[in-house]
């Protein structure tokens, strides 16, 4: 009996086959997560240019739109990146939602006494932290990218990043919401980066400790970089 | 009645000849033949998988929730095979010789030779299945030596060889279940055998979850249901291990072979409390590096570390200089009992001896010892709370294996045509004492390489009438089973099943355990029927028959132990010699070794059930030793 | 010592269950946890009450029959230990213990603390084997297995199928169980021919049985009585990616 009795459902192509398996969805989350981590790092590095003054960061903002010229038109590369990011976010959230629904179904009757032994707070807050981040991202786009919320009429000016940031963060509730979202991001990455590596099978019993530490360090550096801006604005260091 | 059907010709050619003489079943016809296999341990799972592969229509039954739970899983030490990979003088003939001698000349030569021959194929088969045996750095298989032999022929997978071999067979079985050749009936306990016109044609089972009594019909029935060591209540067997399947078959006409031959394993963790439910074995491979000793002085209660070297008695090394700590199990057990009876035992109650690794740790270093026996040391610490790297282990013998079982011929067929018995459930290959690492070998030999030949031979050479479960014989047996269950749950007495089982166990351990005397056996023979009466009038089973009822499961098994115990004592009484694990105090050499009486007892005792109110009839199958010279065993 | 037990009692799969409290007296430290339950059951039966149903067999930590949560932790929280091997010396007089069965859709409760784990067998049926029909094997030493591979295969094969990993997993996933068998067989040269198909089929079977998926909490590893590491889940993932992207015929 060499033929296995349970034949794998033939998927039309390999990527769809990957998507159709539980582990495949996790892999999609890991890969899209990696893209998003890369973006977040780049974004953070861009943000801290604010400490070099308005000229530099506003120039950087223009650069993001001009890069790739003349092969690409003005802002085209930025749109390509935005589309890739959008697809990543959609896939990441879709997979997470599907897996969460499946996981909830897997234990219809819960425990009365269950204790956690090994897991971390970061791991336990992945889902709600993720939802918070999604809400934040939508707000953030309407806020700093489009200038449609959080500003007095006429206060937001396209490409005047420095002035927009200072004005935006001077609204205390918005700055606090931003910091809160960055806390969620930090926790999400603390578990998420290591978890992604585990999903891809790069974690071994020998390296798991160091990978967990690296994951945490990246999360903390990103967190510190991001919150340094609203804190500096609130403290009046950047004005 | 006792036709052993041993093929003629030289011993090396017997199995080959037998196989050639066997009738075959055309591959296209195989699926028309239904085979019932009861038990899914090494023998049962291996047979079910192999027969499924051949194309037979197999139904396999287990009282467990999964075939992977069978107690074969708990075997620790290893499996013998005459591979001679070590170039240390091993051969099929030597394995054969060691096994016959180790069994104290109470096994059939032809069967044992076949076992030794097949041992070689078993290792090949298991490696092909992916059993993760221990390896050398070069990638070749590692072996070690084991009690009672002087060559290194034991293949092992850390201390979990049984688990790994069982999982190999289990996986092969699951593959066949997926392929549709085997239907697995889990949580189904066989409660009786159905015999139609003199042939075994089916079984009656109880669904342990719903309590439903079911009938199953087949052309042939195989029992691979393990041993009956739990008759002693405390043993190294799993709590569920029982005699019911073979006992019910015995009551339907299958002869019971050598029921008194039980093995007491020397290296178990001593009993520590009144409520103890089972004993834990430590692989006897520990004796390869551990040294057994007790204080020279009686009642010496000093800590082991403060007893100086010259006040210790390494009694196995002293009495058996050439085998030392590696004497066979029966010898090691009996010696432990003797020193404890002398008052030199150690630990609570004085029922223990030391197994000391201090020298091994000095010689090999602790990491090496840890690599070899780490899991056993951990297990010991879990149970006793003691660290055996620092203080010597305490060990004591415990009931471990039953060499006796249903009598079978060379084809592994019982005295009921169509009823085959494999593994520990049959009486066949170990004589009066089993050598270490031979149980796994026998279970797999029976399941993988013997039944797949002899069972088709039976099917092909018998004209089997068409029978199904509507046959009146099925209805009659089913009715009996239902009545028995109903009777049991309606007693509503005062005693729990366990309390009766414990009482039986004590009786058996005291009078039919490591040393047996005529007086003790007669006492048991008088008391067991009384206890049986107590059971049937005063046991209390809570709940009914039509539910998941673990007390009822236990009760059914204990009821059968209460009958088997009597037969064991009867057999021990008639065998007025000492041989292997059977030590009659009346029959010993001047220096206290077991004394065989070949003139009068060189036979297999096979008992025939005559009914509840009649005595058993003893049949004798004479044993002839043509290749292994009959000699008093000496391990000095 | 005397203990208070709060035990989940449920007559059968369909019945509603509830927690019932019992006092157990005369427990000694040298008992095992299951011997303590034996004591309770003897007492219950003498009083005419139905004993607590719990699964057990070998009582030496290898058959995988036993298992339930003790105060919220599968197998009671001592590393590398099944409940049958858990000694009462880890508890003290007056302790209050809650005993709860494994909970997962794939493991329906049969009665009290006993659940149906046959879903595990069906995962094995999907591919947890090396096809080697009896009789056709080459000489055992014809297949060389590097010691490290053999050791890893063994570490994975040590799984006893008790289900604690599923019980402890926040998602009731069977990833540790499945990855252990996949790692065992995929680590060996004998397992290579069926490697991809085995991985695909077993992972598919795992989802078909209504188990959840891994979110890398590590709860399974922490309660596994055989201390099987979650590294094996990573290996399974890698094998699945490989098997999906390099399907047969490539």
The best one-word shape of chain B is globular
Describe the main β-sheet of chain A briefly: none
Strand content of chain A: under 5%
- CATH arch. level architecture of the domain at 264-400 in chain B: Alpha-Beta Complex
What is the strand arrangement across the widest sheet of chain B? 6-2-1-10-18
Count, helices of chain A: 9
Structural class determined from secondary elements of chain A: mainly alpha
Task: Please provide the count of β strands of chain A.
Answer: 0
What features would you describe in this structure?
The complex is a heterotrimer of chains A (239), B (636) and C (250). Chain A has 239 residues and is mostly helical. Chain A has a single domain (19-105, 121-235), classed as 3 helical TM bundles of succinate and fumarate reductases (Up-down Bundle), CATH 1.20.1300. Chain A contains 9 helices and no strands. In chain A, helix 2 (22-47) crosses helix 4 and helix 8 runs antiparallel to helix 9. The termini of chain A are far apart. The mean pLDDT of chain B is 95. In chain B, 37% of the residues lie in helices and 15% in strands. Chain B starts with 13 loop residues before the first helix and ends in a 14-residue tail after the last strand. By secondary structure, chain B is an alpha+beta fold. Chain B contains 17 helices and 20 strands. Chain B is globular and about 75 Å long. Chain C has 2 domains: 3-111, Ubiquitin-like (UB roll); 118-245, Orthogonal Bundle (Fumarate Reductase Iron-sulfur Protein, Chain B, domain 2). The mean pLDDT of chain C is 96. Chain C has 8 helices and 7 strands. Chain C is α+β, with helices and mostly antiparallel strands and 250 residues long. Chain C starts with a strand and ends in a 5-residue tail after the last helix. In chain C, helix 3 packs antiparallel against helix 5 (175-186).
What does the secondary structure layout of this molecule look like, with pairings?
The complex is a heterotrimer of chains A (239), B (636) and C (250).
Chain A: H1 14-20, H2 22-47, H3 54-66, H4 76-105, H5 121-124, H6 126-145, H7 161-169, H8 172-199, H9 208-235
Helix pairs in contact in A: 1-2, 2-4, 2-8, 2-9, 6-8, 8-9
Chain B: H1 14-21, H2 27-30, E1 34-38, H3 42-54, E2 57-61, E3 79-80, H4 92-102, H5 109-129, E4 143-144, E5 154-155, H6 161-179, E6 182-185, E7 188-196, E8 199-207, E9 213-217, E10 220-223, H7 244-251, E11 256-257, E12 262-268, E13 291-295, E14 312-313, H8 315-319, H9 329-341, E15 353-356, H10 358-364, H11 366-384, E16 393-402, E17 405-406, E18 419-421, H12 439-461, H13 472-489, H14 497-512, H15 518-538, H16 550-574, H17 598-601, E19 603-608, E20 617-622
Parallel strand pairs in B: 1-2, 1-10, 2-6, 10-18
Antiparallel strand pairs in B: 3-5, 4-5, 7-8, 8-9, 11-17, 11-19, 12-16, 13-14, 13-15, 15-16, 19-20
Chain C: E1 3-9, E2 18-24, H1 33-46, E3 69-70, E4 73-74, E5 96-100, E6 109-111, E7 114-115, H2 118-127, H3 147-157, H4 164-168, H5 175-186, H6 195-208, H7 219-223, H8 231-245
Helix pairs in contact in C: 2-6, 3-5, 5-6, 5-8, 6-8
């Amino acid at each position: 009996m060499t033929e296995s009795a349970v034949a794998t459902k033939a998927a039309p192509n390999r990527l769809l086959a990957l998507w159709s398996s539980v582990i495949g969805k996790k892999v999609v989350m890991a890969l899209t997560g990696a893209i998003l981590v890369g973006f977040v790092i780049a974004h953070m590095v861009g943000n801290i240019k604010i400490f070099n003054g308005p000229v530099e960061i506003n120039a950087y903002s223009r650069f993001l739109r001009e890069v790739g010229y003349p092969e690409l038109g003005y802002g085209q590369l930025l749109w390509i990146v935005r589309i890739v990011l959008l697809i990543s976010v959609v896939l990441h959230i879709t997979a997470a939602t599907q897996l969460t629904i499946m996981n909830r179904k897997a234990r219809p009757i819960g425990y009365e006494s269950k204790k956690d032994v090994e897991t971390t707070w970061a791991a336990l807050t992945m889902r709600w932290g993720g939802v918070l981040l999604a809400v934040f991202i939508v707000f953030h786009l309407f806020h700093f990218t489009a200038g449609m919320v959080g500003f007095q009429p006429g206060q937001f000016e396209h490409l005047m990043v420095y002035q927009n940031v200072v004005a935006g963060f001077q609204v205390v509730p918005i700055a606090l919401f931003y910091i809160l979202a960055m806390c969620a991001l930090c926790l999400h990455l603390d578990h998420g980066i290591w978890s992604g590596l585990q999903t891809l099978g790069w974690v071994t019993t020998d390296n798991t400790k160091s990978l967990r530490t690296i994951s945490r360090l990246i999360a903390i550096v990103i967190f510190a970089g991001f919150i340094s801006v609203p804190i500096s604005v609130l403290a009046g260091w950047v004005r | 009645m006792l036709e052993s059907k041993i093929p003629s010709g030289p011993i090396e050619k017997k199995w080959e000849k037998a196989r050639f003489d066997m009738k075959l079943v055309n591959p296209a016809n195989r699926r028309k033949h239904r085979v019932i296999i009861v038990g899914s341990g090494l023998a049962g799972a291996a047979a079910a998988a192999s027969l499924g592969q051949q194309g037979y229509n197999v139904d396999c039954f287990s009282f467990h929730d999964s075939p992977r739970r069978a107690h074969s899983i708990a075997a620790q030490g290893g499996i013998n095979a005459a591979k001679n990979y070590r170039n240390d003088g091993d051969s099929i003939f030597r394995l054969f010789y060691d096994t016959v001698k180790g069994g104290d000349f109470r096994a059939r030569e032809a069967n044992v030779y076949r076992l030794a021959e097949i041992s070689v194929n078993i290792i090949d088969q298991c490696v092909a299945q992916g059993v993760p045996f221990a390896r050398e750095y070069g990638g070749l298989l590692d072996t070690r030596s084991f009690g009672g032999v002087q060559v290194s022929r034991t293949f092992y997978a850390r201390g979990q060889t049984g688990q790994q071999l069982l999982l190999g067979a289990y996986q092969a079985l699951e593959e066949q279940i997926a392929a549709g050749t085997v239907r697995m009936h889990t949580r189904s306990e066989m409660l009786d055998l159905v015999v139609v016109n003199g042939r075994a044609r089916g079984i009656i089972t109880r669904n342990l979850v719903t309590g439903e009594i079911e009938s199953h019909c087949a052309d042939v029935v195989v029992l691979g249901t393990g041993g009956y060591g739990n008759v002693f209540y405390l043993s190294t067997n799993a709590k569920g291990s029982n005699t019911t399947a073979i006992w019910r078959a015995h009551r339907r006409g299958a002869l019971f072979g050598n029921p008194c031959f039980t093995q007491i394993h020397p290296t178990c963790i001593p009993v520590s409390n009144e409520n103890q439910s089972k004993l834990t074995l430590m692989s006897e491979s520990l004796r390869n590096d551990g040294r057994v000793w007790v204080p020279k002085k009686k009642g010496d209660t000093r800590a082991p570390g403060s007893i100086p070297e010259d006040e210790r008695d390494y009694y196995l090394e002293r009495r058996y200089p050439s085998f030392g700590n590696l004497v066979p199990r029966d010898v090691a057990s009996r010696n432990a009992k003797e020193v404890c009876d002398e008052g030199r035992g150690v630990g609570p109650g004085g029922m223990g001896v030391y197994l000391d690794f201090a020298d091994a740790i000095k010689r090999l270093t602790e990491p090496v010892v840890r690599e070899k026996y780490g899991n056993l040391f951990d297990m010991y610490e879990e149970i006793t709370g003691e660290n055996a790297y620092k203080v010597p282990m305490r060990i004591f013998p415990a009931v471990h294996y039953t060499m006796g079982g249903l009598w079978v011929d060379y084809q592994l067929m019982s005295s009921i045509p169509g009823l085959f018995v494999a593994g520990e459930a049959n009486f066949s290959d170990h004589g009066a004492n089993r050598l270490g690492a031979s149980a796994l070998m026998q279970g797999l030999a029976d399941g993988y390489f013997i039944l797949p030949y002899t069972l088709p031979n039976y099917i092909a050479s018998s004209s089997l009438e068409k029978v199904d479960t509507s046959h009146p014989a099925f209805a009659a047996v089913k009715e009996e089973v239902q009545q028995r269950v109903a009777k049991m749950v309606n007693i509503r007495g005062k005693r729990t099943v366990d309390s009766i089982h414990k009482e039986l166990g004590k009786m058996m351990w005291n009078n039919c355990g490591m040393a047996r005397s005529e007086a003790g056996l007669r006492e048991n023979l008088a008391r067991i029927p009384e206890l049986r009466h107590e059971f049937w009038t005063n046991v209390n089973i809570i709940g009914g028959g039509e539910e998941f009822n673990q007390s009822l499961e236990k009760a059914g098994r204990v009821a059968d132990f209460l009958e088997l115990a009597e037969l064991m004592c009867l057999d021990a009484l008639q065998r007025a010699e000492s041989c292997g694990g059977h030590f009659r105090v009346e029959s010993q050499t001047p220096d206290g070794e077991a004394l065989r009486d070949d003139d009068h007892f060189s036979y297999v005792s096979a008992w025939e059930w005559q009914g509840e109110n009649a005595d058993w009839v003893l049949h004798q199958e004479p044993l002839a030793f043509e290749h292994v010279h009959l000699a008093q065993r000496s391990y000095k | 010592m005397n203990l208070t037990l709060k035990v989940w009692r449920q007559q059968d799969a369909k019945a509603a269950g509830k927690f019932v409290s019992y006092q157990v007296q005369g427990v000694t430290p040298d008992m095992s946890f299951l011997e303590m339950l034996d004591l309770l059951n003897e007492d219950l039966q003498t009083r005419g009450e139905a004993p607590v149903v719990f699964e057990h067999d070998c009582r030496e930590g290898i058959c995988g029959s036993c298992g339930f949560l003790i105060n919220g932790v599968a197998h009671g929280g001592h590393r590398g230990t099944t409940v049958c091997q858990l000694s009462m010396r880890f508890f003290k007089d007056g302790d209050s213990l809650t005993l709860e069965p494994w909970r997962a859709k794939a493991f329906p409760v049969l009665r009290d603390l006993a659940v149906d784990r046959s879903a595990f067998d069906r995962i094995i049926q999907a591919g947890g084997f090396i096809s080697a029909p009896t009789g056709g094997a080459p000489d055992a030493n014809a297949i060389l297995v590097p010691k490290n591979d053999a050791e890893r295969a063994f570490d994975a094969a040590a799984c006893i199928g008790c289900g604690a990993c599923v019980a402890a997993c926040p998602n009731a996933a069977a990833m540790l169980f499945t990855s252990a068998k996949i790692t065992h067989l995929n680590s060996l040269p004998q397992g290579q021919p069926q490697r991809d198909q085995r991985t695909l089929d077993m992972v598919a079977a795992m989802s078909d049985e209504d188990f959840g998926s891994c979110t890398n909490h590590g709860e399974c590893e922490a309660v596994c009585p055989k201390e099987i590491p979650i590294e094996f889940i990573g290996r399974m993932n890698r094998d699945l990616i490989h098997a999906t992207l390099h399907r047969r015929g490539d």
